Design the sequence.
């Protein structure tokens, strides 16, 4: 029997069956996808144009996320807090805000979020939604090129902090605010180019959202949005229902914070009750001196990603309805609940990965202990984004690298892919060498780095950078000491390695490279599934 949802308004009642909701869900998802295409085509930096380190989402007038493009999980799970911060600033239609402050929904400072306030197509003073675009900018100032510094102990060391501020008021650009931002970065021309691309993406989303309201009318659109979010919640809770009573705990660790090499505990207890996923980070380390702390928005993004993976279906839209089935508990003093002035640059990229690892393992262990199938949940993947930042006179380059995904009961793990909270591409060699004074001496699959098993883990990658002029290099990596674990007898993936010539480099650090001095990054492989003899 086809389910339908009835939504009452003052003027009418509209019934949406599953087909109608699906059609509407696809139409609004395409708005977000269109924004992403516009952003990529208009961007200046290879980081956004080629590597696609950016995300787009559509929000309704109440700040509820209605649709997101298939972009970066760590961005999208955190952006609702950015929109909430904008809504707290008494926005007006056609205002455009930018922000990166972790205290207001930001993840880390290089991720600049732009939010356009969308007005009604005929009633100019009525807000009907918000378009949000988050992009990683290759420099926002701070103590080292690329704004992903090693050893930062305060947020102000990592770059320019931007609370929610208007760069357009009623559609009128605020040039002085833009000038202030550009005066605090090392590469202003590239930054303004990427900001203009974000502005173009927001405008594309706003135009499509207004056309939707113009075509179908206010009442129909409001009802359709509520029906879609209710459908997502209902579908999510139905999937969780079979797991009621499941509970598991996983203790993992980060390999230092850039100030000390001490292991930093990451503990996740995951349970399902009342058709709701509960995630508790009690037992995790308190805030640390270095910059692997992360704001709570990042922990929320990790938990939402795990919930989405658990659904094991492409038919469930990702929107505010998904978040209704999640309850997250984070201690006040926690590495995943950073407060000012804690530094956070590496927390967004590395702690988010470890949180995901711990949550998925806890969930998988709990499901199997409950006598249920956990075939959809893999062994641990590479568990790091392998952050590489290089900078010279007048330029900065940043990228993350793929590695091995963990194997599962269904198949071996994919090789050379971005895992967990990262969904970017690698920078193409041609684009990198055209844009920067660098060469890539080698780029290959790291054969044999995946864990053994009935299904083997995916392999990492091998990449060698050779700067053509002296540069400052920063590495923020993980899984160099603690390898990704296999499951049910599967072997661990091979740990990652960093080298400068013949010299072994630690997981995190900042160094100067001479022209022609090679930097080699070997990323981790994924864990294997089951015993090879099986």
Sequence:
């Amino acid at each position: 029997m086809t389910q339908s949802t009835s939504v009452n308004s003052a003027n009418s009642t509209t019934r949406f069956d599953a087909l109608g909701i699906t059609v509407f869900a696809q139409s609004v998802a395409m708005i977000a996808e269109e924004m992403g295409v516009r952003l990529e085509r208009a961007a200046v930096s290879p980081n956004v144009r080629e590597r696609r380190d950016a995300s787009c989402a559509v929000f309704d007038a109440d700040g509820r996320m209605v649709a997101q493009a298939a972009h970066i999980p760590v961005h999208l799970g955190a952006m609702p807090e950015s929109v909430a911060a904008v809504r707290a600033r008494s926005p007006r239609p056609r205002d455009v805000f930018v922000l990166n402050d972790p205290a207001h929904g930001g993840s880390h400072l290089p991720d600049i979020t732009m939010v356009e306030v969308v007005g009604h197509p005929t009633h100019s003073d009525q807000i009907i939604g918000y378009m949000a675009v988050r992009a990683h900018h290759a420099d926002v100032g701070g103590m080292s090129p690329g704004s992903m510094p090693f050893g930062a102990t305060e947020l102000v060391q990592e770059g320019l902090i931007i609370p929610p501020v208007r760069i357009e008021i009623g559609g009128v650009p605020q040039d002085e605010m833009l000038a202030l931002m550009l005066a605090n970065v090392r590469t202003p021309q590239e930054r303004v180019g990427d900001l203009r691309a974000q502005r173009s993406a927001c405008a594309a989303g706003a135009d499509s959202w207004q056309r939707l309201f113009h075509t179908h009318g206010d009442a129909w659109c409001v009802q359709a949005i509520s029906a879609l979010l209710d459908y997502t919640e209902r579908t999510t809770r139905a999937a969780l229902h079979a797991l009621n009573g499941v509970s598991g705990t996983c203790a993992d660790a980060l390999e230092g914070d850039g100030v000390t090499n001490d292991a930093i505990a990451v503990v996740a207890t995951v349970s399902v009750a009342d058709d709701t996923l509960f995630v508790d980070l009690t037992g995790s380390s308190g805030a640390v001196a270095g910059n692997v702390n992360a704001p709570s928005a990042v922990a929320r993004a990790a938990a939402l990603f795990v919930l989405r993976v658990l659904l094991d279906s492409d038919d469930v839209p990702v929107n505010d309805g998904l978040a209704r089935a999640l309850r997250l508990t984070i201690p006040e003093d926690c590495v995943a609940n950073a407060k000012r002035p804690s530094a956070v640059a590496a927390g967004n990229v590395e702690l988010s990965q470890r949180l995901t690892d711990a949550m998925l393992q806890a969930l998988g262990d709990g499901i199997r202990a409950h006598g249920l199938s956990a075939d959809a949940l893999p062994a641990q993947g590479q568990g790091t984004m392998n952050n590489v930042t290089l900078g010279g006179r007048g330029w900065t380059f940043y990228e993350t690298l793929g590695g091995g995904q963990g194997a599962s009961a269904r198949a071996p793990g994919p090789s050379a892919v971005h895992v967990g909270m990262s969904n970017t591409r690698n920078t193409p060699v041609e684009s990198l060498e055209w844009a920067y004074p660098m060469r890539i001496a080698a780029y290959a699959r790291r054969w044999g780095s995946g864990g053994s098993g009935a299904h083997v883990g995916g392999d990492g990658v091998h990449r060698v950078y050779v700067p053509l002029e002296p540069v400052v290099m920063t590495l923020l990596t993980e899984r160099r000491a603690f390898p990704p674990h296999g499951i049910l007898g599967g072997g661990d993936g091979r740990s990652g390695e960093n080298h400068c010539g013949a010299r072994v480099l630690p997981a995190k650090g900042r160094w100067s490279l001479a022209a022609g001095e090679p930097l080699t990054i070997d990323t981790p492989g994924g864990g294997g599934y089951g015993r090879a003899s099986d």
Residues 378-534 form one domain.
